[in-house]
Amino acid sequence: MAYQVVSALINSLRSGALPLQDYLAEIESTYKEREPTVCAFLSEARRFSRLRRKAIVIERENPQPINRPPLYGIPIGVKDIFRVDGFETHAGSKLPAEVLKGREARVVTLLKEAGCLIMGKTQTTEFAYFAAGPTRNPHAPDHTPGGSSSGSAAAVAAGLCPIALGTQTIGSIIRPAAYCGVVGYKPSYDRISKAGVIPLAPSLDHVGFFAYEVPAVELVASLLCPDWHLTVSESLPVLGIPKGPYLEHVTSEGQENFVESIDRLNKAGCIVKEVQTMQNFCDIVERHGLILAAEAAQVHATWFSEFGELYHPKTADLIREGRIVSVGELAEALTGRQQLRRELTSLMDDHSIDLWVSPAATGFAPKGLENTGDPVMNLPWTHSGLPTVTIPSGKNAAGLPLGLQIVGRWYEDERLLDWSIELERIITK
To answer: Sign (positive/negative) of CA torsion 412, 413, 415, 416?
Structure first.
C-alpha cells in the first residue's frame, strides 16, 4: 500500500476529484473479490445499496467541498462489540441480540459526524476473548488474522475499508495489525471513550483502530481523543529495548525481524538503548489474567446465569475462573497496574528514552483459525495503559507480515504518533 494513501483518498473525496459514488463502486468490486475468502464482515443483505443511499444523503448535506467534514465518505468497519444504530450487536456470540442492544457507541457517533459511512460490523472473537470467528488472514487464508479484532484488521489489510474500529484487552489490536500487515493504534487507557462498547474487562479494555498508515491514524485519533494537541518533533526519538524475560517469548523468526528493524532505525540515526526491565514479567502476566477473569465474571454475571449454555467453553472457563477471585485480590492486582506504569515511565526518565520498541507479536501468524496467536508481547503495554502503535516491519518468505511495536509515555499519544510517522518512513521505505 502506497505511503499516505488514505490522506490522498480523503483529499480526493473531499475535493470531489474522486466522486463518492465512483469510490463506493471501487470498494464494492474489491469486496466482491476479497470478502468471500477473508470473511471480515458479518453478512448483510444489500450492503452497498444502503451505502449508496447514505452517500447520497451526505453529498446533499455537504455540497461545497470546502465545508465537507474531515472524513467525508470514508467507509469504516466496526468491530461487533460496538453498538451502532440500525445494526444488531452479537459480539461474536450466540446470545440473543436483544439482550446486547443499547445506545450507540460514542466513537461511532463521532466518526459519523466526521463524515464516515458505516461499511458494516466486523467479525470478532466471542466477547473479544479467544473463541475465534471465521475471519482469515488476507495474506494467507489458512493462517489466523489474530484476535480479537480479527475482522477489523483483515478488512483494512484486504482493502475492504481504509479504517476499522477495534478494542484491546490484552493484544487484540496490536497483534492482529502485525499479523495482517497494517497499522494498529491502542491509545493510552481511557483516552478514547468506551461508552456503548460491550466490555470484557473494563479496567483493561482500550478502544482503538486500524488504518493503512500512521498519518491516517493521527488524523482519526485527533477526532476521537479529547483535548488533542498536534505535536511536531524536530529530532528522531531515543528508543529503548526492554531487555529481560519479556523478550524471551519471541520466536527466532520474530527476533530476526526485530533485529533487522532495529538495524534500519539505527542506520537512519535513531539512538537505541537496551534497558533491563520487567524482571517479574511472570507476575505481571498472572496479575493481568486475574483482573481479566474477575472483571469478565462481573460483566457477564447476569447474561451467563441466563445463557451460560450458549457461551463458548473458552469464555465460560474465564468467567468461572473470575468468580473465585476475591475483592482484595482484585484490588491488589489493580494497584499493580499503576506500579508497572510508574516503573516503565521512571526507566524512560532515568535512561532518557522517548519510546519503548519491541516486537508486536511473538512471531508470524500461526497456521489455522482456532489459534488466534499469543498476545504476550502486547500484555505489559495494555496492563500499564501506555499508548502503543504497530508499524508493519516486513514479511517472511511465505508472505506473512510482522510488525514493530512502538510505545509512548502515559497520555502522550500525540508525540507517539508524530514520531511513529517518521519511524514508519524508515521501516517501510
So the answer is: positive
